[in-house]
Specification:
The complex is a heterodimer of chains A (about 325) and B (about 300). Chain A is built from 14 helices and two strands. With about 325 residues, chain A is an all-alpha fold. Chain A folds into two domains: about 70 residues, no CATH class; about 240 residues, MetI-like (MetI-like fold). The termini of chain A are far apart. Chain B is about 75% helix and about 0% strand. Chain B is built from 15 helices and no strands. Chain B starts with a helix and ends in a 5-residue tail after the last helix. Classes of the chains: A mainly alpha (about 325), B mainly alpha (about 300). Chains A and B meet through helix 1, helix 4, helix 5, helix 6 and helix 7 of A and helix 1, helix 2, helix 3, helix 5 and helix 6 of B.
Chain lengths: ~325, ~300
């Protein structure tokens, strides 16, 4: 079937080759593009466009009936005025301080208690009991803050709550700010500890048992084994979890701070965090400019913190870094 | 054989008897604090209303009653509607989430996909920065016009970039390039390879992300708080939140309330409210122990890093 082809025929066949190459490229990649498309479109609408929409922080934002672009372009450009207002108010300092301090508390408590529980559970004698403990401890993790707010109310309700009748007191818990930092720290940790400790537990159980055998042959006691084998083996995971948490240190758990104190005005000084402030600005006071300024402030600082913690960790221990 | 050995080794690694007892008490007490509140709420929902107003919430009340649940049954309408909304959102949301998350993850897990780098980075960037509540609100209401639609409850959680990265690692590990290559040589299309070869191999991973998605949808009240003002579209969790702020809502919307117990007894508001909490909690509390291994496996299926 071989033909002696003149010049033109040669060109023709390369063209065909090119086309078939293109076709092959498409049939190789096309289906994958289609697989990725829905997710990519979602990211466009729920990430990339909203990131762009953050320009409202620099505008005196008004919703326009003509739609999204019109709202963005027709709102007046005010530069950093929203930020000036935000940072000249007392609120900015208060919400930043509260967000940071609570989150620092959560990071520390979570790390210490979860690692402690994980190590203890790995050394308990009855494995069936350990399973029961873990199942019970996971329950709060799977419930929403709305449900937990009801749990809390069952204890703290001033007239009917269990705490007042047990202590024979008559305290209006939802109006006493001094107790709430403790309550909030306790609840936030309580909800997540089951999950976190199982995470560490899985890692502890994965440690090569020969390390422990060798240590026992050398006469190491329990405490020495934990200190010299278990904790060093857990260190990468602890670092990873801490980076993630530090990257989120500017992000408060809205449910905890909004639903559990039942949005009680008397508690604002100790329950106001960035997220509740942004939400209230967006809905209650309708001050979108200020609220979007706070929102952008939160995102930018959060991003900087995430990237810089990661860089710091990578400098000391490349394998523990997130990226 | 291997597993048995591992278990024996673990038993060697154990506390002495006294230390063991001590730590059992500590961990056990903590475990009790995790389930006691639910037990307490169940008890309150079964307490007689007069006993509640006289003695408050008690762990073991003087008088029990089913009035709270009976009132829920007469109230019907609103509660059933919210329950339906929650179920619909959870079912559809989970299906959408699991599908889109795994197709995206599969695409970027395949070496033969030329643009996988681009799509991987496209996804990773979304985890570095957060667009924030206000910008999302503006896009959802003003660009997508989803306010007061069920989509506002489904779409914001329809894809989770973090799960995409986890699933990518999972696909890479579980589905080897050679299986796919051999199917390709046999002439199977990419879609067929995905449906008939990849998915069966990835069931544990897909089960895990589906469970997390279902949990997220069932527990979600935040999107409803932002986007739903129509009473007909209120999911169960948000309904509970509204009732906590205003317990009178229970009687306002239920015209049947007057007929309850011949109109003599007062509406058992407290017990009814707690009965609703029990109903919202029950599907999770009753099932999660059986799914627990998937959740726990989810933590380990794809170490995010390679």
């Amino acid at each position: 079937m071989k033909e002696v082809t003149p010049k033109g025929g040669l060109e023709n066949s390369t063209k065909r080759k090119k086309r078939s190459k293109f076709w092959q490229k498409f049939s190789n990649n096309g289906p994958f593009i289609i697989f990725a498309l829905p997710g990519a479109i979602w990211m466009l609408f729920f990430f990339y466009i909203p990131v762009f929409a953050n320009v409202v922080a620099f505008k005196d934002f008004k919703f326009s009936p003509d739609g999204f672009m019109a709202s963005l372009t027709q709102s007046k450009w005010v530069g950093f005025q929203n930020f000036k207002f935000l940072f000249s108010s007392n609120a900015a300092w208060l919400i930043t301080k509260n967000t940071l301090l609570y989150n620092l508390g959560f990071i520390t408590l979570n790390l210490i208690i979860a690692v402690f529980f994980a190590i203890v559970m790995s050394e308990l004698r009855h494995k069936k009991l350990v399973k029961t403990y873990q199942t019970s401890m996971l329950l709060p993790y799977f419930l929403s803050w709305v449900i937990i707010a009801y749990f809390v109310m069952a204890f703290l309700n001033p007239e009917k709550g269990l705490l007042n009748s047990m202590l024979h007191t008559d305290i209006n818990w939802y109006a006493e700010p001094k107790y709430w930092p403790f309550f909030l720290l306790m609840l936030g940790t309580w909800k997540g500890i089951g999950y976190n400790s199982i995470l560490y537990f899985a890692t502890v159980m994965g440690i090569d048992p020969t390390y422990y055998e060798a240590a026992m042959v050398d006469g190491a006691g329990k405490w020495q084994q934990i200190k010299n084998i278990t904790i060093p083996q857990l260190l990468p995971l602890m670092t990873l979890m801490t980076i993630l948490a530090v990257g989120n240190i500017f992000r408060a758990d809205f449910g905890l701070f909004y639903t559990v104190p039942q949005n009680s005005g008397a508690l604002y000084n100790v329950t106001s965090v960035l997220d509740t402030y942004i939400y209230n600005g967006l809905t209650a006071t309708g001050d979108i400019g200020m609220s979007s300024a706070a929102s952008l402030y939160q995102s930018v600082v959060g991003c900087i913190l995430l990237v810089s913690t990661n860089m710091l960790v990578r400098r000391f221990d490349g394998d523990s870094a997130l990226f | 054989m291997n597993k048995k050995k591992a278990i024996e080794d673990v038993t060697v690694r154990a506390f002495g008897k006294k230390t063991d007892l001590f730590f059992n008490i500590i961990i056990g007490l903590f475990a009790i604090t995790c389930i006691l509140p639910l037990f307490f709420v169940v008890v309150i929902s079964l307490t007689d209303e007069n006993t509640l107003s006289q003695y408050g919430y008690q762990l073991w009340p003087k008088k029990w009653s089913f009035a709270g649940y009976e009132y829920l049954a007469t109230m019907g309408g609103e509660l059933m509607r919210s329950l339906w909304i929650s179920i619909i959102v959870t079912v559809f949301g989970t299906m959408i989430n699991a599908t889109f998350t795994s197709t995206y993850a599969y695409a970027i897990s395949r070496k033969s996909f030329k643009y996988r780098k681009f799509f991987t980075i496209f996804c990773l960037i979304t985890m570095l920065f957060s667009p924030g509540m206000v910008a999302n609100y503006i896009v959802v209401t003003n660009l997508l016009h989803l306010k007061d639609t069920l989509w506002a409850l489904i779409l914001p959680m329809a894809v989770s970039p973090f799960n995409i990265i986890v699933m990518r690692t999972f696909f890479k590990r579980q589905v080897s390039e050679s299986i796919i290559e051999s199917a390709r040589i046999d002439g199977a299309s990419e879609l067929r390879i995905f449906l008939q070869i990849v998915i069966p191999l990835a069931i544990p991973g897909i089960a895990t992300i589906s469970l997390f998605a279902a949990l997220g949808y069932w527990n979600d009240w935040f999107n409803a708080l932002l986007y739903i003002s129509d009473d007909k579209l209120v999911p169960l969790q948000y309904l509970l939140m509204k009732i906590q702020a205003n317990i009178e809502m229970l009687t306002q919307n239920a015209g049947t309330g007057a007929q309850f117990a011949g109109g003599l007894a007062a509406v058992p508001k407290e017990a009814t409210r707690m009965a609703m909490v029990v109903i919202a909690t029950l599907p999770i509390a009753a099932t999660y122990p059986f799914f627990q291994k998937y959740f726990v496996r989810g933590l380990t299926i794809g170490g995010v890093k390679e």
